[in-house]
Design goal:
Helix 3 crosses helix 5 and helix 6 packs across helix 15. This protein starts with a helix and ends with a helix. Among the domains are: about 190 residues, no CATH class; about 90 residues, no CATH class. The chain has about 475 residues and is α/β, with parallel strands linked by helices.
Length: about 475
C-alpha cells in the first residue's frame, strides 16, 4: 500500500499523456509538496516525543522545586540528593540513647508489705520489712479546670466616704477564660494544626471545658492582638540580619490563592500572608528593604527586583533541577560536570576546608562550564538551565567566601511548609483574618523553637500580657 502511494504520482503523469517537460514539472511540484509535508510531520513527531519524554520523566518534589503536596500519593521512586555514606542504617556506635527512667522523688508512693506467712499463717506485722524492689507508673490525672471567682467589696469610712475595691487588670467581663486556656487554644491551633471544631471537641472531652467554635475563634483573635508587639520585634530582628532567608508558598483562602511569605534568620522567623507573589508583597511586608543584607532564595524573580546588598541562590533547588535533567537526558556529560562541581563546593563547606585557592578553582571551573556550548538544540530544558546559571552566576558560590551564608534555603522552606501541613489538615483558610492569625502565631512559635524555648510557655507569657 505504501509503495502504491509513493508511485501514484508517476502513474497519474503517465496516464495524462503529458509532454516530458510537463511531466517533470508535475513531479517536481509533487516532490516539493512531499518534502514540505515530511518536514511538518517530523516537527510533529519531535513535539510528541518531547511531550512523551516529560511523562516518562515527570517532575516531582525530589527532582524539581515542586512542593511535596503536588506529588502523587504513591510515588514509586524517592530520589534523594544525598549520597551513600557507607554507614549502616540506624543508630551509630557511641551515640547516647534515650529511654524511660525512674524519677528520684515520686509524687505518690504505694507500699506493699506482707502481713502474714502463707506457709504457717504467723502474723508478721511487728517484724521489720526490707525493700526488695520498686516500679514506677507515670500517668496523667483527669484534667479539671479551676474556676477562680474574684469578688470586689466596698467599705464606708467614718468620714462617710465609700471606698470600693477593684478587679485585677484584664478581668473585664463577668466570665472569661484565663491565660492557660488562651495559650492552649493557640498552641493546639498553630503548633499542632488542630482545626477549630476538633479543638472544641478536645477541650470538651479532655479538659472538661465547655466552649464553642465562636469562643475558640475569639480567643485566637485575642492572643493574636496580644502578640503584635512581639511579632514586630521579630520582624525588626530579621531586618537587622546580615543574612536573610526568604521563600513563599501558595495559600488557599476560601477558594482564592494567596501567598505566605517568610523572612528568617538563625534566631527569628517572620511570616505574613499577601494576595500577591510579586514585588508588591515584599514592599508591603518589608518596606525598609534589604540594602544591608544578603538574601538567600530560589530563582523567583521578585527577590532580584527588590533592593538587596547581595544574593545567594539555594543550591538544593539547583541540585533537584540537575537530578531531573539527569533523568531527562541521561547521556549528557555536561550535567554530571556541573553536579560534581556543586557537590565538591558543598563538601568543602561542610568539612571546613575552604581556602582562597580552592574558591578560585571552583569559580574557574564554573565559568568554563558556563562557556561550554550545548550544540544539540533539542535539549531545550538543558539550554534554559544553562542560561539561568549564566544569569545568576554571581550568586552561586557566595557561601564559600562568607561562612555566615548558608548554601541552601532549607530554613525558609521549613517555615512555609507549615502552611501546607495546616491546609492538609484543615483544607483551607476561611478568611484573610484566619490566615493572618496563623501566620502571627506560627512566627512566634518558630522563633521560640529556634531559641530552644518551649512554644507553649511562650504562648502562656503572651496570654498574660
Amino acid at each position: 500500500m505504501l509503495i502504491f502511494l509513493l508511485l501514484f504520482p508517476i502513474f497519474v503523469v503517465m496516464a495524462k499523456g503529458l509532454t516530458t517537460e510537463e511531466k517533470l514539472s508535475f513531479l517536481f511540484d509533487e516532490l516539493k509538496d512531499l518534502k514540505k509535508e515530511n518536514k511538518e510531520l517530523r516537527k510533529e513527531i519531535d513535539r510528541l516525543n518531547n511531550r512523551l519524554s516529560k511523562y516518562e520523566t515527570p517532575k516531582n518534589s525530589s527532582n524539581s522545586s515542586k512542593p511535596p503536596s503536588s506529588d502523587f500519593p504513591k510515588q514509586r521512586n524517592n530520589n534523594s540528593l544525598r549520597k551513600p555514606s557507607g554507614k549502616k542504617p540506624g543508630g551509630q556506635k557511641g551515640r547516647k540513647g534515650n529511654t524511660l527512667k525512674m524519677v528520684a522523688k515520686p509524687d505518690k508512693i504505694e507500699e506493699y508489705t506482707p502481713n502474714y506467712c502463707p506457709l504457717c499463717g504467723r502474723d508478721l506485722t511487728s517484724l521489720p520489712a526490707g525493700l526488695v524492689g520498686s516500679r514506677q507508673v507515670i500517668d496523667i490525672p483527669a484534667v479539671q479546670p479551676i474556676v477562680t471567682e474574684h469578688r470586689v467589696y466596698q467599705k464606708q469610712c467614718t468620714c462617710s466616704h465609700c471606698i470600693q475595691g477593684s478587679f485585677p487588670s484584664g478581668i473585664n467581663t463577668p466570665v472569661s477564660y484565663g491565660p492557660g486556656v488562651l495559650s492552649l487554644v493557640a498552641y493546639l491551633n498553630a503548633r499542632q494544626y488542630i482545626p477549630i471544631k476538633r479543638a472544641v471537641e478536645m477541650l470538651n472531652h479532655i479538659f472538661n471545658l465547655s466552649i464553642s467554635t465562636g469562643g475558640v475563634s475569639y480567643l485566637l483573635n485575642k492572643i493574636t492582638d496580644k502578640a503584635q508587639p512581639a511579632l514586630e520585634a521579630i520582624r525588626q530582628q530579621v531586618l537587622g540580619s546580615s543574612v536573610i532567608g526568604a521563600d513563599e508558598t501558595g495559600v488557599n483562602i476560601n477558594g482564592k490563592n494567596h501567598w505566605a511569605w517568610t523572612f528568617q534568620n538563625e534566631k527569628a522567623t517572620y511570616i505574613a500572608v499577601h494576595p500577591s507573589r510579586g514585588v508588591a508583597a515584599i514592599e508591603a511586608i518589608m518596606p525598609e528593604g534589604f540594602e544591608d543584607s544578603i538574601l538567600v532564595t530560589d530563582c523567583w524573580r521578585a527577590y532580584f527586583k527588590f533592593g538587596a546588598m547581595n544574593h545567594q541562590l539555594c543550591l538544593a533547588h539547583l541540585q533537584r533541577d540537575l537530578l531531573y535533567l539527569k533523568q531527562r537526558f541521561p547521556n549528557n556529560t555536561w550535567i554530571n560536570k556541573i553536579d560534581a562541581l556543586i557537590r565538591n563546593a558543598l563538601l568543602l563547606h561542610k568539612n571546613q576546608q575552604v581556602t582562597k585557592e580552592k574558591v578560585e578553582e571552583v569559580q574557574r571551573s564554573f565559568v568554563l562550564l558556563l562557556e561550554e556550548p550545548i550544540t544539540n538544540k533539542d535539549l531545550k530544558e538543558l539550554i534554559t538551565f544553562q542560561k539561568r546559571l549564566v544569569k545568576y552566576q554571581d550568586y552561586i558560590f557566595g557561601f564559600l567566601s562568607n561562612p555566615q551564608i548558608p548554601p541552601d534555603n532549607n530554613g525558609s522552606e521549613r517555615a512555609v511548609r507549615n502552611f501546607k501541613v495546616k491546609q492538609k489538615v484543615s483544607g483551607f483558610f476561611k478568611s484573610d483574618i484566619g490566615s493572618q492569625i496563623y501566620a502571627t502565631l506560627r512566627s512566634i512559635i518558630d522563633t521560640a523553637i529556634k531559641n530552644n524555648q518551649n512554644p507553649y510557655q511562650v504562648m502562656r507569657l503572651l496570654a498574660k500580657c
